Amino acid sequence: MPRMRLDKLLAHLNCGSRKEVQAMIRAGRVQVDGAVERDPAAKVDADTAQVALDGQTQSYQAQRYFMLNKPAGVITASRDARHDTVLELFPEKVRRGLFAVGRLDKDTEGLLLVTDDGALSHALMSPTKHVDKVYEAEVDGTLAPDAAARFAAGLTLGDGTVCRPARLEAAPDLGAAWVRVTLREGKYHQVKRMVAAVGGTVVRLRRIKLGGLLLDPALAPGEYRPLTAEELAALTGRTE
Ligand code: URA
User: Fold this and answer.
1) Residue 78 DSSP one-character state
2) What residues are labeled active site?
3) Which of 54, 59, 66, 97 has the CB geometry, 3.0–4.6 Å to 229, for a possible disulfide?
4) Which atom belonging to ligand 1 lies closest to the Cα atom of 107?
5) Which residues have CB under 8 Å from 43's CB, separation 6+?
């Protein structure tokens, strides 16, 4: 069984740098097997120890998974000669090997999964897997009265592209001009083009859900954090 220092294990779990996690441990924010541990040098069994930070269980992951609240104005790419990219929101040391799962437009905000797990990315993006993606859109103009029914039936876009059935709902909790759209595919500019097909113009768009993963409302645009063990399980269906 690999025994290692608690601070080293937490750093491996992407909870922070070695220095940062030492401060977290000394502050009493870390529990090992249900008991607060304040010694960064305490030896723990990396395979079996239940380690929690601020009450959230941290699972040992060989691979890395982050949720990013993508801000508007950056492009979903690893590197670009002209534009800032989502990967550049991560420190250089963290960013190595990571990529974004799927793509959001430059002006779209919201939930982006950033990982080094190619198999999960493939599974989430595969059109046969039917992973729901939920968007909130602010819309200019008046939508056709049968807009929701046309979304549900599978809309045909102006250029003849046929979309799979999707859900369109008013979102009065966000404001009179807001709607929620749930898609099971990811065609180019899909929400904007579907809304345009029923008479509206999307003026603001953000993704709030990808499969079982919800955007953490505590994350401001541009901020990211590692997924919790529970979030990863909800996304993969795996329990680790
Ligand atoms: N649909 C769009 O139009 N843009 C996005 O970024 C995502 C979905």
Assistant:
1) S
2) 105
3) 59
4) 6
5) 3, 4, 5, 6
pLDDT tens sequence across 11-54: 877 788 889 999 999 999 999 999 999 999 999 987 678 889 99
Report whether residue 189 contacts ligand 1, using a CB cutoff of 6 Å. Answer: yes
Indicate whether residue 134 lines ligand 1 (CB < 6 A).
no
Give the Cα separation of 234 and 183 in Å (integer): 18
What pLDDT, in 10s, does the model give residues 186-215?
899 999 999 999 999 999 999 999 999 999
Residue 85 in tokens:
């990219």
Q: Which position has the token pair 């904007």?
A: 192
Is there a contact between 224 and 90 (Cβ–Cβ < 8 Å)? yes
Residue whose structure tokens are 């960013």? 95
Higher pLDDT, 42 or 57: 42
- List pLDDT tens digits, range 91-103: 988 888 899 999 9
Does 240 score more than 50 pLDDT? no
Closest CA to 25 of 38, 43, 9: 38
CA distance 87 to 17: 18
Q: Look up residue 176 and give its DSSP letter.
A: T
Q: Ligand 1 test: best mutation among 74, 190, 195, 210, most atoms within 8 Å of CB?
A: 190
Residues 2-17, mean pLDDT to the nearest whole number: 84
CB distance 163 to 190 below 8 Å: yes
- 150 within ligand 1 shell (Cβ under 6 A): no
Q: Beta strands of 33-108 (E only): which ranges?
A: 35-36, 43-45, 51-53, 56-58, 65-70, 99-100
SS3 state at 27: coil
